[in-house]
Amino acid sequence: MPRPTMWTPQLQETLQLACRAPSFHNSQPWQWSVGADTVELHLFPQRLVASDSSGRQALLSCGAGLDHFRVAAAAAGWTANVDRYPNPNDHKHLATIDFSPMAFVTEGHRHRAEAIRRRRTDRLPFAAPADWDTFEPVLRQITGDTVLIDVLDAQARPALQKAAALTESARLDDSTYHADMHWWTSSSDSGTGIPHSSLTSQSESDRVGIGRRFPITHHRDQRADVQADDARIVVMSTYDDTRLDVLRCGETLSAVLLAATMADLASCTLTHLTEVPAGRDIVRELTGRELPQVLIRMGCTPADEEIPPLTPRLPLADVVTVRR
Ligand SMILES: Cc1cc2nc3c(=O)[nH]c(=O)nc-3n(C[C@H](O)[C@H](O)[C@H](O)COP(=O)(O)O)c2cc1C
């Protein structure tokens, strides 16, 4: 088998899968650079969301892309060895990856890569997860000691709803935030942004209660049988707030979302609750953690439901450069 760092169809497929990673507003703030022996991951400032002034969401997104890359490489028979922040003077150079051949590609490797093709952000209400007691230990094993995990149940709902409401009102006059929201939900032709088919109507959004408020769509009410969201909420917090912590948190976010997909759980990443102090303080109180980064709603969806199209991605040519 050729080494994957050569610009082979195998590496192109690996990068295609890596770019299926979730990203803030589907901004895809990554740039991959392919050399003779290594692949580099860089933060691409031109695709930063303006309201993400610290770049935290972009780093989380790139971390998710990095983990997706590793999963896709494993399914192709390669262990991706990741050196994070290899150049201390360049904080946009997030990782350099080299490869060693794997002894055997297992069913597990293949299934995880397959989950990349099925995973999507679902903003509709969920029924309660069917077999949470089996899933939670899996979740805790994945997260290990890179991030702290807390699972919130129905009792935390009122506080989370308050956090969502306070976040909304803190942003009423935030013109940059609303301009962003408008831009990233009306640019789906360009291969970035969130298409209307992935957004919710007023009634769907009300039944979830704690989601980010995107522009409302006017489609027929979906998943009407699920009257109120009964999802578990997973909160991921970091020990510290360095770039490396946030990047690794993004990698773990990817691992958690793929594990949920493999367990037939639907998921929706939520970060609005950690973006402004009023919301973040409530999440801090609920978890007892100083640095909550990401929340994920997880639950079940009706089995016979029509699955909407996947959100678009940029063509590979826009996010990959080949170093000569
Ligand atoms: C760091 C990060 C933050 C996100 N925040 C939210 C959010 O607050 N609300 C939401 O509905 N989706 C959120 N998402 C999901 C993205 O909007 C989604 O990944 C993107 O639109 C691509 O769609 P897909 O996940 O269906 O492929 C977030 C994703 C990431 C990686």
UniProtKB/TrEMBL annotation:
Q: What is this protein called?
A: NAD(P)H nitroreductase
Q: Which PANTHER family match?
A: NAD(P)H NITROREDUCTASE RV3131-RELATED (PTHR23026:SF123), NADPH NITROREDUCTASE (PTHR23026)
Among the GO molecular function terms of this UniProt record, one is: oxidoreductase activity
Species for this entry: Mycolicibacterium diernhoferi
